[in-house]
Amino acid sequence: MSLQAKLQVVTSEFQKLQLDLSNAVEARQRLEAQLSENQLVKKEFDQLKPESVVYKQIGPVLVKQDQSEAKSNVDTRLEFITGEIKRVESQIKEIEQKSEKKKTEVLELQTSMQQQQAKASQPAIKA
């Protein structure tokens, strides 16, 4: 495989990694927003009196819900979201490491191509 072809392959792999990284970062941002929202709900629940009534929206309808069940659901959601954030963060680290390796590979191939072109453009020296 020529250097040019190899460079194109490695460059497209690098670009795919960059796209994957971008998607993972977006996913993390969405999870952070969900985490923040659920933490606010938890704070509100912590301020409720035991006799307070809690409603859950199901479609266009508000349905009465047991307060302890609602609190439990929010706690479960917070655990899940926190776990997902950790998973996505490790995914981001992994993609960043792969991306750095590909970037180095691209630079090495570009350098090799430039050296090859420089040699080809030098006139042959005859003795």
UniProtKB/TrEMBL annotation:
Instruction: Please give the InterPro entries that the UniProt record associates with this protein.
Output: PFD_beta-like (IPR002777), Prefoldin (IPR009053)
The molecular function terms of the Gene Ontology recorded here are: protein-folding chaperone binding; unfolded protein binding
Q: Where are the transmembrane segments?
A: none
Q: Which domain of life is it from?
A: Eukaryota
Q: Name one GO biological process term.
A: protein folding
Which Pfam family name is an example for this entry?
Answer: Prefoldin_2
Q: Which stretches are annotated as coiled coil?
A: 14-44, 78-112
Which SUPFAM superfamilies is this protein grouped with? Prefoldin
A single cellular component GO annotation: cytoplasm
Which keywords does this Swiss-Prot/TrEMBL entry list?
A: Chaperone, Coiled coil
Keyword match Coiled coil: yes
* Family label: Belongs to the prefoldin subunit beta family.
Q: Can you say what this protein is called?
A: Prefoldin subunit 6
User: Taxonomically, what lineage is the organism?
Assistant: Eukaryota, Fungi, Dikarya, Basidiomycota, Agaricomycotina
